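Deliverable D5.2: sample structural annotation.
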Amino acid sequence: MYNVATEQILKVKAPKQAILFKIVMVIACILAITTIPQMYAIGILLSAVFIVFTVILFKYYNAEYEYSLVDNEFTVDKIMSRSMRKRCGVYNIAKASLIAKPDSQAALGMEQKKLRTYNYTSNEGQENIVLVYTMDSSNELVRLILEPNEKMLEAFKKSAPKSAYRIEKSV
């Protein structure tokens, strides 16, 4: 096929309940700090535990996805707080059975299949969403919900089988 190499970084918007979690944790930290004069060592320990959990929570909700496509191998990594990287999955685009918009007839026809579904979107809007039905590293058919840019879509078009790519150009 073609030697295609492209990358995309996608900032993830935190869900609405994340704000509630953050507020609760900050209040818990303040209350734990106010217990230090009464409880001494236990208050200090309790404050340290709440502060650590609050920092982890804030880092967890500051995330972005990195899509990379190199030689038909599509890799998704989750980057948290621009420092920690977690591999989400490796998928073979050359074995894709469908790449289409969610409202297309082909995607609606595949919707009833019971597959593992992975959502790697920004949680902001539905206008740039693309469904990809392909094989993962264990040769199992999976459904990917992605938000690729134009450059990544062109790379998909070059890497995927011609019968699988069903995204029409918008005029």
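Annotation notes: The chain is about 35% helix and 30% strand. Helices lie at 16-34, 36-39, 41-60, 105-110, 150-159.
The annotation will be released with the project's public dataset once the embargo ends.
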